[in-house]
Amino acid sequence: MPSQLSRRVLSAVAVGAVAALSLSACAGSDPAASGDGEIVWAIEGANLSAGKMDPQTSQLDVTAMVQRAVLDSLVFQEADGSFSPWLAESWDIEDGGASYLFRLRDDVTFHDGTPFDAAAVKANFDRIVDPDTASAQAASMLGGELYAGTDVVDEHTVRVRFTQPYAPFLQAASTALLGFYSPKVLETQADQLAAGGPDITVGTGPFELTEYTPDQDIVYTRNDDYTWGPDGAGAPTFKTLRVDILPEASVRVGALSSGQADVVTNLPPNLVSQVPADDTVQSIAYPGLPYSLFLNEKYGVFADQKVRQAFTRAIDVDTAVSEIFFGQYPRAWSILGATTPGYDASLENSWPFDPAAANALLDEAGWTGRDADGIRTKDGQRLTARWIAWTPVPDDRAALANAVQSDLKAVGFDLQREVLEPGAYNEQYGPKTYDVTDWGFSGVDPDLLRSHLATDGFQNASQVSDPAIDALLEQGASTTDTAARNDVYAQVQQWNAEHAAIVPLYSPTLISAVSPDVTGLSFDLYGRPLFATATVG
Hints:
Elements: H1 3-8, E1 9-11, H2 15-18, E2 38-43, H3 61-67, E3 75-77, E4 83-85, E5 88-94, E6 99-104, H4 118-129, H5 137-141, E7 147-154, E8 157-162, H6 169-173, H7 183-188, E9 207-213, E10 217-222, E11 240-245, H8 249-257, E12 263-264, E13 280-285, E14 288-295, H9 305-313, H10 317-324, H11 355-364, E15 369-370, E16 376-378, E17 381-382, E18 384-390, H12 395-410, E19 414-420, H13 422-429, E20 436-442, H14 448-453, H15 467-478, H16 482-499, E21 502-506, E22 509-514, E23 518-519, E24 522-523, E25 529-530, E26 535-536
Parallel strand pairs: 1-13, 2-11, 2-12, 18-19, 18-20
Antiparallel strand pairs: 3-4, 5-6, 6-8, 7-8, 9-10, 10-11, 12-22, 13-22, 14-20, 14-21, 15-16, 16-17, 23-26, 24-25
Helix pairs in contact: 9-11, 10-12, 15-16
Family: Belongs to the bacterial solute-binding protein 5 family.
Keywords: Signal, Transport
InterPro entries: Peptide/Ni-bd (IPR030678), SBP_5 (IPR039424), SBP_5_dom (IPR000914)
């Protein structure tokens, strides 16, 4: 890490040590005493306008990040991983984790004046699991097929039931994906939530969405009535949170340097040195699935495990990640990042760069011929795979892709990459007519692997279908003992290291820069800023 960066980094890598800074800073704040200041927050946000403004249906991290200002949750997850009251004053875990009883606050109202109550919880959860909603991630976090229903016990008591113990639920219930919209909106405008906007994106949060110009900006205005934030937090001390959508990272840094933005997020490591010296750089490692390549074993050459294994050993991950990301992102060894509960550290250094091993595996798989370009052949077929990527692609990931392609070509493997607009990408992703695709996926609970590796997982891009893995993932979701869960997920990680369905490359961090004019800004466990606690001036 360059010394210049070291002097400015407020906190790095370890998730538990950096999240949720000074959440009590606004505790008991008096709305009448709140100022009229404005914080301008510059984000990447390129795909929000593509119907991605609803965390209950969108899988994009940026959706949950911006709509956290509007959508409150039942519970709040603290920096140490524990849970504290938010919209729920207290709760009981019943039947070994198969049922959760929440006692709700009785003083909460939505921005449109509708009271928050048990019926509102039921309406939102019913909407998430309704097949017509087409929710994927939120529905999975709500238990998927394990979800049995939500019961209104009385006006301010609600019970959420599952068909078996479901350990990840409290963590899921702390996220914006299971946050709450006004029942009035759900009754009359639910079909507009994906597009979002004033009088549509209506929650109980510390801010109200008052203006939205797609691909330009979102304006959130202080909710003066807000008194129910976690840890006693009240209404924000500033009036306006303006979100500027600036897809180009260099433009975001320029906005910060010129004073046009107070906070910027999603900075690539190569631009951190351009952040003004008096600003603070906050770098928090994402928990969850590292940025990875997904090898489609039901389509093309990756049906052969030896080819998948050769693919993993042919890539010089250490060199590429270190050089391209300036030492800021650690190389990944497992399908869980090192800051994720259940991470199996025994996998570190277990599959190093080894082109000789890759060549031997490809020989064993029968790819022994070579064409005029040096690409391996078998029965007249070239060893070729097609990688589809979702646009926009940051420059650093483009450079990483070039390095991967070069390494593979050295062992006679032709990897062709197509960068596609969302519509064209989905045309191939839906029917799984690709060989490779890529992403990272943030999540605090290792249950996120269920969506990526279970036979019916909504993000099973590798098309894995293994009854033993399905059983392990179900066991992990239903086991409440921490040691037992860690053992289950260690088995899943070790299986993938051998099976090579997913090839983890690096664990990204969410890098933000904050102007000295902004104080009291806090961050959640994903590194996303929480503006309700901030002050400006």
